[in-house]
Amino acid sequence: MSCSSNCSAPLIGHIALLAIISFGGVPGVLPDLHDFVVTARAWLTDREFADCFAIVQALPGPNMILMMSFIGWKVGGLPTAISCALVTFVPSCALAYTAFRFWNRFRDVAWQRRVQRGLAPVTIGLVIAGGFVMARTGDSGWLSLAVTGTAIGLMLITRINPLWLVCAGAVLGALGAV
Amino acid sequence: MEPVLCDEMRLRAITPRALFFAFLKVSLYGFGGPIVWARRVLIEERRWLSDSDFANILSFCQFLPGPNVVSMTVCIGAKFHGAAGALAALAGFILFPWTLGFAIGVVILSYAQTVLLQGILRGVAATAAGMIIATGIRLLRPHRRPLALIVTAIAFAGLAAARLPLLIVVVGLVPVSIAIAGRERAAAQ
Known about the structure:
The complex is a heterodimer.
Chain A: H1 8-21, H2 30-40, H3 46-58, H4 63-105, H5 110-135, H6 142-157, H7 162-174
Helix pairs in contact in A: 1-2, 1-4, 3-4
Chain B: H1 3-12, H2 16-29, H3 35-45, H4 51-62, H5 68-110, H6 115-139, H7 146-161, H8 166-188
C-alpha cells in the first residue's frame, strides 16, 4: 500500500466524479483515472494499474465496480475499496431508475420508437468495438487473435456454453500458447 | 396453449426473487463483461425479453453515466417489478459476485507478476473479447437494414480504429441514425 489513509478521501471523491460523468460507460473514463492515480498522485504504478484492468477483464461479475475497488484497496485497504465500489454505482443507479421510469411512460409513443430504432445500430457498433479493443490490448500476437476468432465462430454457430470457451482460453493461456 | 397465455404466465413468473437469481447468474457467469450472459440468460434461457427489447434498454443505458450493465440491471428490474424489482436485480448482480470477485482479485493481484497467471489472464481475455464481439453480432439480427448496418460499421470504426472518445462517437452518430430511422419509417408507410 503506497499511501496513508489521508489519500482515501480524494480518491473516493475523484472516482465519484468520474462515475457520474461517465456517459457511455466507465471504460471511457479509465484513461483519466490512470492520469490521476498513476501520473499525478503516484499511488499506483503503471504496472499495478494494468494488472487491475487485466484481472477485471478475466473475472466474472461487475467488472468496472471491481476495477474501482481494486484501486481503492491498493490505496486505502478494504474500507476504501468498499467506498469506491459504492460511489461507482449508487448515484448512477438512482439516476438510471428515475430516468427509466420517465422513459418507460412514453414507451409506445412514435417518437420514442424512432429514437430507439436509431440508437440500436450505434449501440451495437460500440459493443462490437469494445470486444475488438479488448482483443487488441497488450501485445497480442496472431495466436491470441486466433483464440478470439474461434470464440466468435463457436458462439455464433453452436449453442456451446460460453463457460467452456473461457476454460479453454484459460488452459491455452496457462500453456503459454496465447 | 394460446401463445398469449404463455406470455402472461411467463411474465407473472418474473418475481423480484426470480430477478435476483437471474442477475446473480448473469453476474457470476459473466466473464469479460456480463453483457454476454445478460443476453443469453434473459433472452435465450428465460425468454423475458426479445433481442430488440434488450438492444433498446442497452442503448438507453449507454446514454446514462456509470457502469452500463449495472444501469441495465436496474432498468430491467424496474421494467418488470418497479422499485422492488430494481433493487432485487441489483442485489443479485452485485452483493455476492462483488464479494467473491474482490476476494479472488485481491489474491490474484499479489501474484499478478507470475508468468502462469499472466498467461491465464491473457487467454481468458482473448476468449472473452470473442464472446463480446459475437454477442454484438447476434444483437444486430433485428437491425439488418443496409443503412443501419452502415451506422453500426461507422460506430465500430470510430471507436476501434480511429480511437475517438465514446461520447464523440455517440453524440456525432446518434442524430444521424435517428434521422435515418425516421426516413425509413416514412418510406415504409
